[in-house]
Write a structure and sequence with these properties.
8 strands, globular, eight-stranded parallel β-sheet, TIM Barrel, 9 helices, 217 residues, alpha/beta, 42% helix, binds pyridoxal-5'-phosphate
């Protein structure tokens, strides 16, 4: 497992960008990885994880949380509205608030529970038809709607299109977050997290570079 190597590279990227040590949260993306590898990361001191599937998280994390009560799990996969209730019980943060119907559901759940996971709005910076996320032109209205429901996203998240330079996408996301006074920027994966750090990421989502290739489900 290359957790130590990734942490070293992350620290170096922060220093190179003139940013404070520890100003980025490394999310170790553990979806589909065997429990033994997750346990190894926990034992090595890793405390923030990214997961994509509600079912998998429900099976995997309660025992780990008992053993490591300060572990945090962030939802980074698409969230079906009918799994939102389970999701708010399982996750400390949701990075994939990507549509009005999900916002409405989360707002209702937040009201009933008196608490809500940290929320990131997923923005479809590449305007890809097959990809989830709010289109850049619709973000102002979407955030207004969220606020009207008493939902307060802390940040933005993006997954740039495959096979292109992610630089303009990271720039765009950082600019939109700054304009809206949002402090969280969830961007950067195994192949580009150092670039994301240079462009202001507060949360990088790194899976295969830490755990190795994912077993296919
Ligand atoms: C799986 C996943 C990651 C991690 O991808 P790697 O390339 O393995 O680092 C990051 N973000 C999202 C949204 C993912 O689904």
């Amino acid at each position: 497992m290359s957790l130590i190597e990734i942490r070293t590279r992350l620290d170096a990227a922060l220093a190179a960008a003139g940013r404070a040590a520890g100003s980025v949260t490394l999310l170790a993306v553990s979806k589909l990885q065997p429990d033994a590898k997750v346990l190894q990361a926990l034992q090595a001191g890793q405390r923030a994880f990214g997961e994509n599937y509600v079912q998998e998280t429900a099976a995997k994390w309660p025992p780990f949380r008992t053993q490591f009560p300060d572990a945090k799990v962030h939802m980074i996969g698409p969230l079906q509205t009918n799994k939102a209730k389970q999701a708010v019980e399982l996750f400390d943060a949701i990075h994939t608030l990507d549509r009005a119907s999900l916002a409405e559901k989360l707002a209702k759940l937040a009201q009933a529970r008196g608490q809500c996971p940290d929320l990131f709005v997923q923005v479809n910076t590449g305007e890809e038809p097959q990809k989830a996320g709010i289109l850049p032109a619709g973000l102002d209205d979407f955030l207004k709607d969220c606020h009207a429901m008493d939902l307060k996203p802390q940040g933005l998240m993006c997954i740039p299109p495959d096979g292109v330079d992610p630089t303009p996408h990271f720039h765009m996301l950082a600019g939109m977050a700054a304009r809206h006074g949002l402090s969280g920027l969830s961007m950067g994966m195994s192949s580009d997290f150092e670039l994301a750090v240079a462009l202001g990421a507060t949360h990088v989502r790194v899976g295969s570079a830490i755990f190795g290739a994912r077993p296919t489900a």
